[in-house]
Amino acid sequence: MEIFYILLSAIPITFAGLVEDIVKKITVKIRLFAAFISVVIGILLLNIVVTSIDIPFFDSLFQIKVFAYIFTIIAASGVANSINIIDGYNGLSAVVSILIFLALGYVAFELHDVLVLGMCFIMIGSIGGFFIWNYPFGKIFLGDGGAYFIGFVIAVLSILLVNRNSEVSSWFPLLVVIYPVFETVFSIYRRKILKKTKIGHPDSFHLHQLLYKRVVPFIFELDRKENVLLRNSATSPFLWLICSLAIIPAILFWQHTYILIIFVFLFCIFYIMLYKNIAKFKIGRVLKYLKTY
């Protein structure tokens, strides 16, 4: 029954994404509102409410139901949107999502949580079938509908895993999804603070886009207009590796809050430093220098 409730609550956000795929006129605000509706339905049917972040002072705030509900709606909607943010190149969001579900599924297996484990394997199998056709040739694509659905299920299972198993640190799912989530947060900062544009205004300065433009051509010695498919598919493995830098410690330390917090901050610092070096063309110069030797 819980699996049915998960699918039922995912309908608004998935439908909004599908309509956007078809008509290309659904604004970010409408899609975000659909995400809020999905999370509210999930709260009502599954009681997916964040009740703690394992930090004593802040945990007292979650005793206020209104605060807990608002936090859950914003956090879950953000995770759902984050998978769509990174859905830029063949195989990128598919493998990142599989890695996330593997991490959630591993901990669920350790705790004998049949619901979360079963749903993780269903999602892994589904995305795996999609991946075969998506990578490397891009025969089919997730679209907004698919990306939003996957992100929403990740958010729901993350909350369920923590709520149903007190042994799991609340920071475990955050570290698991830190790559797409921080990509989203950093994109908001870049657009709103640095570029003074609207948050929902698209640009071509995501980390995966910078890797595509400024790193992959150096490594494979490709002209910027040469072999677009190869450059597209060669970009994703770099992001799979970056994502795994968070997934691996999350799996190893899923019970240890303060270790997980440290790795969350380390990943954010690593991301910013990497982004800064690519944006300023330093990575390209280093790769060019190394190739001469």
Could you walk me through the main structural features you see in this protein, from its secondary elements to its overall organization?
The chain has 293 residues and is mainly α. 75% of the residues lie in helices and 0% in strands. It has one domain (2-291). The chain has helices spanning 2-9, 11-23, 28-46, 56-59, 65-85, 92-110, 114-134, 143-164, 171-176, 178-194, 207-214, 216-220, 228-252, 257-279, 282-291. Helix 6 (92-110) packs parallel to helix 13 (228-252). The termini are far apart. The mean pLDDT is 91.
Average pLDDT over all residues? 91
**Main sheet: strands, sense, barrel:** none
What share of residues is helical?
over 70%
The structural class is mainly alpha
Low-confidence stretches: none
Strand content: under 5%
Radius of gyration: 19 Å
* Whole-number total of structural domains: 1
Q: What letter string, H or E per element, gives the SSE order?
A: HHHHHHHHHHHHHHH
- What separation lies between the terminal Cα atoms? 61 Å
Number of strands: 0
Global morphology: globular
Please tally the helical runs, counting DSSP H or I stretches of 4 or more residues.
15
